[in-house]
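notes to self, project folder thing:

trying the whole complex as one job this time. last attempt i did each chain seperately and stitching them together was a nightmare. two parts in total, labels are on each line so i dont mix them up again. if this works i'll redo the older ones the same way
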Amino acid sequence: MSANEAFDALVGQLRKADDQTLLKIVSVVDRLAKRGPLDKLLDQHRLRLARIRPPRPMNAGRLFVLPFEELLVDGRAWSPGMMRVPRDRLSRLIALTFEHLEPGLESELRRRLQGRTMDDASLILEIGRELWPACATAVGEVLDRGRQTRDPEIRELQLPLRIAQHLMPVAEAVVTTVWILPPKPMLELDKAAQEHIADLLGRAAAAGKDCFQLVAELLVNRSELPLSIIEPVLSGAFEWGTRERQQAAAMVAEACQSDMLRLFRDIAETPVTTEPRHLLPRLQSIVSNLESLLEVAAKVKFDHRALRKLKTETFDLIQARLGHVLQEQLLPAFESLADPASEIDWRRLEQNAGAAANMRLMAKRIGLATKVDFVFSRAFERYRAVLQPDDPGLGGRAMLDPLVMDRVRIIELLFGSRAAMQVLAPFRSDPNDQADARQGQAKLASRAA
Amino acid sequence: MPQFFKPWMPDWMSKDHDTSRPFPHAEWTVGIPFTTPLICGAKARLAKGGAVELLVPNPSGARGYYVMDLRATREFCQLTVHDEVLLENLLSMDAVTPATVRRCARNVAIAGSAGRDAAAAAKKAAERDDGIVNLTNYLMLMRLLRKVGIEGKELQQPVGKDKAVQNEIKRRLVALTPKIGLTADEVIDTVGDIAFYASAIGFAGSELGNRHPVVLEQLRPFAQAITRWSALESGDNKERAEQIAECADWTNREVAPLIVDCQTRLEDITELVRTWRGGRDDVRERFSLPDWLLDGWPEIFAIWETAAGEDRSMQRAAVAQIHRLLPLAKAIAEDGKVEVLSIDSSVLRSRSVKLHEDWKSGAMMAGMRARAEAVRAGVA
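result (full assembly):
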C-alpha cells in the first residue's frame, strides 16, 4: 500500500469512526513529533472533537500556542500578511522559538508536563508564567536572526512570529479571559465577561499599540457583537485619553468591517447552488456585525459609507440567494418527498428550510421587509400547489400520513405554522369543513399577496 | 407471547365515565410536551368544574406561572403544527393524566408532526410499552395459576395457538373461583385492568425495564451530578441547580416507598384482584401516583445527558431549561400552591418575544423548537 493509499484509507476510517475510535486516533496523532498532513486531516473533525472533548496531553508547544490559539486558521485559508497564524506551520513556529529558549528549559518542562493534560487549568497558568516570558524573548531573537540572515522561512513566518511576540506579555490575561467567555460566536456578554474584557484591553493597552490591536483582533474574531468590545474600549478603566479611546474604537470597528467584507466576498464567490445551511453562519456574522456597528455609528468614527454599501449589498445577495433556494433547491426536493422511493435527505432539507427562514429574518432586518416577503409569498403559492390532497372527498383525521406531515413541516419551517395549518386543513377536516379551509386559504393568500 | 391481551384503557379515561366523581389528584399537574418555545415546560391541571387549566412558566425566566384555560392556549401564542394537533387531541380527552398526555403525545408524534426521529421513537416507545403491559398481564396470570398449583411450563406444553393457551388458562383459573368468587373470565378481565397500571411498576427485581423503576434509578445519580456541577457556579445558576437537585432528591424519597408498596401488593395477585373488585379506586390511585410524581423527569434526564458533552455555557442553558420543566409536585406538596401571575391584556398583545419578527429571537426560537423536538425524539 502506498503512502497515499494509506492516507486515503485513514480518511475513510476517520469519517466512519465512532467517538471512541476518533479519540484513540487523536491520542496517537498527539504523540507524533511530526504531524504534517495528519493535522489537516483532523481539521475536518475539529467540530466533532470539540464536542467529545479529547483530554489533550499538555506539552510546552501547546502551552506556547495557547494565547494565540484563537487566531489559528486553516493553512489553506492563510496568506502572508494576514493577521492570523496558519495551523500547518505551527510545528515550525514552535521549533524555531524553542531553539532560542534557555538551554535545559524545554527538557525540564517536558519532565514536569509528563502525563498531564490540558484540563489542568492551574498547571497551565503555573507553567505558562515561566514559559510565556521566555518565549517572548526567544521569538524576539528569532526575528532578529531573520533580519540579519534574511532567512526566507523566517521572513514568511514573520507575521505569525510577531503575533506570538506581542501577545506573550498579556498571555495569562488572554488565556483566563478566553476561559470565561462564552463559546464562539459570542453574542450578549454578562457583566463578569465585560469586566474581563475591559481588564484585558487595559493590560494590552499598557503593553503597547501592537498588543492592543492584536487583542482587539482576537476578541473581534470571537464576537458577533463588536459593541461588546467597543464599549469597554470607550469606557474601560485604563489610562487612556478620549482621543486614544476613539482611535482604538475606530480600529475595532474597522477590523469588524474588514472581517465582514472578507465574509461577504467569501459568500458572493460561492456557487449559487450552495445550500443555505452553509451560508447561514457567515451571513449571521455579517448581519450581527452590521447591526452592532450601526448602533455605535454615532459614537465611533469609521467609514460609514462603506458600511451602508455593505448593508445594501448583503441584502441584495440574501434576496437573490433566497429566490434561488426557494424555487430551485428546496422545491424539487419538497416535491420528491411525496415519493417514498425517493432518497431525499429529509434532515438536510429541514436544515436548509430552517436556514432559509433565518435568512429571511436577517434580510428583513437590513433591508426592505416587503421585498423579501414578496419572494416568500410567491414561493408559498408554488409549495401549496404541490401539496394538495389527491381526493378531497377522502379527507379526515385518520388519513394523515407521514409523507404529508414531512411536507407540512417544510412549509412550517419556511412559511410559519399558520401557513402550515392552512395547508394541512384539507387533509384533516371532514369534507363538509372543506369550504372553511378553502376560505382560510384564500384569506392567507390575499394576506401574503 | 400470547397476543390476545389487548391494550386496555381504564373506564375513567373514557368519555362515558361518570365525571361528577372528584378527580383523585386534582392538585397534581402533568407536563405537556409542547414544542412552541413560549409554552415549553407548560403543565396542565384539573380546575373546578372539570375544566383543564394550563400553567405556563413565566416566559421571562423569572418565577411564577401564567394560568389559563387549556382551550385558550391559542390566544396566548402562535402554536407549532405539532402543538395545534396535540392540543386538539388533549381537548378531546375527558381526563388529563400523565398516561393520557403520553398517549396523545405519542399519537401526534407518530403522525410525524415533530419530525421523523420523534415519530420513529414514539412508535418504538408505544410498542415497547404495549409489550410490557402484555407481558405483565401474562406474568400476573402465571402467578395466579401457580397459586392453584399449575406451573407456566405446563401451559406451554400443548404448543399451539394462542386461543388454545387462552382456553387452557381459563380452564385452570376455574379452580380459583371458590377462593375469590369470580369466574375465569372476570379474573382475566380484572388482571388485564390491573396490568395496565402495574406494568409501569413491575414486579420486584423485574428486568423488563418497567418505566417507573428505571426513572427512579436515575434520580439519585442525576441529583448528584447536578450538585457536583453547581459547586463551580454562583448566583442564579447555582440557585437553579440546587433547586433541581433538591427536587430530584425529594421525588426519589417520595416515590421509592410508593413503588416498594406497589411491588409488595403485586406479590399477592389473588388479594390484589379481590381488592380491585371491592373498590378499584384505591388500587388505581396507588399504582398511578408514581406516574404523577415522576412525570417530566425522563425529559429532564435527556436534556442533561445531551448537555453533558457541551461546554459550561451550554450546560447553564440546559439547567435553565430543566428548571423550567421541573415538576411542580414538590412545590405543591410543600407550599400547597404555585405562584400565579396575572394575565392582563398586554401579555397577550405585547408579545415580549416577537416570534419570527426580530431576527435574533426568531432564530433562537427556531433553535429552541428544534431542541424540544430532539427531546421528543429522545424521550417518547
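what i see at first glance: Chain A touches chain B through 34 residues (CB under 8 Å).
need to look closer tmrw
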